Known about the structure:
With 588 residues, this protein is α/β, with parallel strands linked by helices. The protein contains 15 helices and 17 strands.
Amino acid sequence: MQLxxxxxxxxxxxxxxxxxxxxxxxxxxxxxxxxxxxxxxxNQTGQSIASQLEIDKLLQVVTDAATELTxxxxxxxxxxxxxxxxxxxxxxxxxxxxxxxxxxxxxPRPTALFGPTFRGEAPIRIDDVTLDPRYGTMAPHxxxxxxxxxxxxxxxxxxxxxSGEVLGGLFFxxxxxxxxxxxxxxxxxxxxxxxxxxxxxxxxYAAAQGQIIDxxxxxxxxxxxxxxxxxxxxxxxxxxxxxxxxxxxxALLSRSDQATAEQKTWAHEVIxxxxxxxxxxxDDLLDVSRITRGSLELRRERTTLAQILESAVETxxxxxxxxxxxxxxxxxxxxxxxxxxxxxxxxxxSNLLTNAARYTDPEGHIGVTAEAGSDxxxxxxxxxxxGISPEQLPRIFEMFSxxxxxxxxxxxxxxxxxxxxxxxxxxxGGRVSAHSDGLGKGSEFAVHLPxxxxxxxxxxxxxxxxxxxxxxxxxxxxxxxxDAGESLAMLLRLDGHxxxxxxxGPEALDLFERMKPEIAILDIGMPGLSGYDVARRIRQNNGKxxxxxIALTGWGQESDKARAAAAGFDHHFxxxxxxxxxxxxxxG
Length: 588
């Protein structure tokens, strides 16, 4: 720079002007560099915030950037969130100080100084917080607690979402007074706004990810359910077909001229046994359905634990003896009398014993122990069988769940027995549990019943068998299934009754008018007129007297029984019915 040639301006004044101009230029350059640095920080922070979707990392970026922008010695971001279980948790980040410096102090309380920030009010900027009237008013510390970082300059701003929710607050401190300017405050407010948008986005992303995970889990569960149902249907078909081969072969043998009387007797026993197996299978399916609908009712009576277990062992004994397994039973020395449904509890224990036999190798061991304490009655069924893997154990009582060995050997069963067992035990107010040390190490199932079921005073009475009086009756049987109708008619004729057979609804009404039966056993799903229609017309013409109407059908839900009663039936039986039950009812 060249000054004009003017002798009236002193050299000292020129030098002073030059110095001031140089200083202003230096300050302008420094301010420009600082502005450039701040803009670079803002730019980098904005990019980092925009690309960050994890809230904890996002908060650290915001805290570090805001601390540097304001010139604070240290800064903190306190954020209140809710975890996956819906519980509140504290998340905070620090900048300029180690985390240990704040860990022992916890979340700032909503004091007169901190409260406005957590309530979403205007920013707070104080040159010397120790001189502020709001400082030092709260017990027990009356100021900063011992060991707290020194703070004189104080700056705080709320972080609020688009909806107005206060997400948390940015807090800054410096040990020297007067460090924060109006510009610092504006920068922090701007950062808080960016942080709020970023947190909202991160929340939306987390929610979307959670929905994706939930949907994937739901889809996986549906696929697993479908797989297990498909397996169940395939197994059901297998279990229903299995008895057909011996039934068909035994039937051929029984009518063969070359068969001996002993062979024919054996064939009849095979047919009876296999039909019983099929009946039990269908009964289990129906029981599970009734439990699921809440329509299965217990028939409680006074009995003993020993009687229930004896009945269960008798049911499971063929499966145990077939594999030459050793069964041990250990009961309390004193009789344990209980008020329960003996049939259902026996069904529970026979299910567990049959399962133990199924999954235990020949000549293996099965043990039953019972304990009656002051709180509960516990019955344990242990076996030395294939065991249960840790992966299978949590789902062992679910529908269609079947224990599998490592070689996937099928041991039979539908996978409903344990689900049925759990349902029946829970109806008694108890619970059932399973334990296994792993594959090849056996299993233990424990039935826990409440002690209130036990009684030591009431006498135990055996139910009286129904009295059967021999008496010939006129019986009408109507069923569109020829084999079912003919076989039932033959059995009733063997008991000495006069039986006529119809194969549809109109034929049943016509035959009823001609023979005037004392008893009519009607199928429901007949052509022409249903069993309901036939029963209604019989009642319209004959009233309630003079004829006993029995519905014999494959439909066995409570609604079906109610509909049968409304149509005029006296009794409702689900196929296949035990012939002795019908015989006792008809002959009585």
